[in-house]
Specification:
The chain is an alpha/beta fold and 367 residues long. It has 16 helices and ten strands. Helix 1 (3-12) packs antiparallel against helix 4 (94-111) and helix 14 crosses helix 15.
Length: 367
């Protein structure tokens, strides 16, 4: 199961703490709101109908004097109530059933030699084609096709990292023809399979080191655009870290034009009001790229929470996966993951240090 699917599934199964709904008045207000946070914390029963329900049941709201509350399904049934046929409180919650169905679909995608059809996945989940597509995207944050694409990329990377041939990696990743493989390999890997296997051998990456108000700065670019902006304490640490990622790449010192790009980035750090518009070579999964695109839409001087970003990309349950995508971003400042904060506005972790994140936000707010 992929990291995204596991994280979002665990999020969808989050339970409220036992102290959240201590009093009947709190429970009644939760029933009136059909509060999802109350799911699993208690059940309510209606004396006039003889049934018990989830707090989120969509049935017509009963009269308060006819309602009693129970800590568990067992307690409600011992009191003589039967489960509601509408919200089915004796079965797993809808979010859990969806998560289980999506996990099963993810396993089918991962284990299949070729991508199963959407119809086959939907049939396995017991849903219509349209409904399954929507549920899968809600739970994982990506479509089934994008999920399969990401898994194929991972299988390809794992295969190329092993001892086998490129051909073995090709078929192991689910490609049934070399033509399809080589047409997709650049998008999946950012370089040819041979270059990837040899640590970027033959790949030309131009780079330069600069100094800015946040310390040392490394900027690297391919012929497609900037592929890395790294911040650090010393130039040596930055260069060594970059060389470890591409040990056999052909690293080329930046020329005057490239150094002007570096100066532009340094100038933006010092004066964010100038703005920053650079050609970028962005490499990541479909989900990561959706998150990074949303980050670039946050204006300088503003922030957004991880929850807000998840909502903006149409994956409200993928909050933790959004955080993981932010942490995977290798292009500081240009993809402004520093503008993402916790829901209460507090500053959380940052790949290049919380102090740098705070300094960037303060500079942008002043500007």
């Amino acid at each position: 199961m992929s990291e995204i699917a596991m994280k979002t599934s665990s999020t969808s199964r989050t339970r409220p703490t036992p102290t959240t709904f201590l009093h009947d008045d709190d429970r009644w207000q939760a029933v009136r709101r059909r509060d999802p946070a109350a799911e699993g914390a208690f059940y309510y029963a209606v004396r006039t109908t003889g049934v018990y329900c989830r707090p989120t049941c969509a049935a017509r709201l009963p009269r308060r004097e006819n309602v009693s509350f129970h800590a568990s399904r067992t307690d409600a049934e011992r009191a003589g109530f039967r489960p509601c046929k509408r919200c089915r409180p004796d079965q797993p919650a809808l979010a859990e059933r969806y998560a289980d169905a999506v996990q099963a679909a993810c396993r089918s995608i991962e284990q299949a030699d070729e991508m199963p059809s959407l119809d086959a996945l939907a049939q396995g989940a017991g849903m219509s084609r349209f409904h399954f597509h929507r549920v899968f995207k809600t739970v994982t944050g990506v479509t089934p096709k994008a999920y399969a694409h990401a898994r194929r990329a991972q299988r390809l990377r794992n295969g190329l990292a092993g001892e086998g041939t490129v051909t073995a990696a090709l078929y192991g990743a689910g490609f049934n023809s070399s033509g399809r493989f080589y047409s997709a390999s650049s998008e999946l890997l950012g370089m040819t399979p041979k270059q990837f296997r040899t640590g970027g051998n033959g790949t030309a990456i131009r780079f330069a080191i600069g100094e800015c108000a946040l310390g040392s700065l490394l900027v690297a670019a391919t012929d497609k655009g900037v592929c890395a902006i790294e911040l650090g304490d010393t130039p040596d640490d930055l260069v060594r870290g970059f060389q470890d990622r591409f040990p056999n790449a052909r690293l080329i010192g930046g020329d005057l034009q490239f150094e002007q790009q570096v100066a532009k980035i340094v100038g933006f750090i010092d004066a964010p009001a100038r703005g920053l518009d650079l050609p970028l070579d962005i490499r990541g999964t479909a989900f990561q790229q959706r998150v990074w695109k949303a980050l670039r839409a946050i204006p300088a001087g503003s922030t957004a929470s991880y929850t807000e970003i998840a909502r903006r990309i149409g994956a409200p349950n993928a909050v933790r996966a959004v955080g993981s995508a932010c942490a995977s971003n290798a292009i500081a400042i240009a993809i402004p993951c520093h503008r993402v904060v916790r829901s209460d506005g507090s500053i959380s972790g940052y790949r290049w240090g919380v102090a740098r994140k705070r300094a960037l936000l303060e500079r942008e707010q002043v500007a």
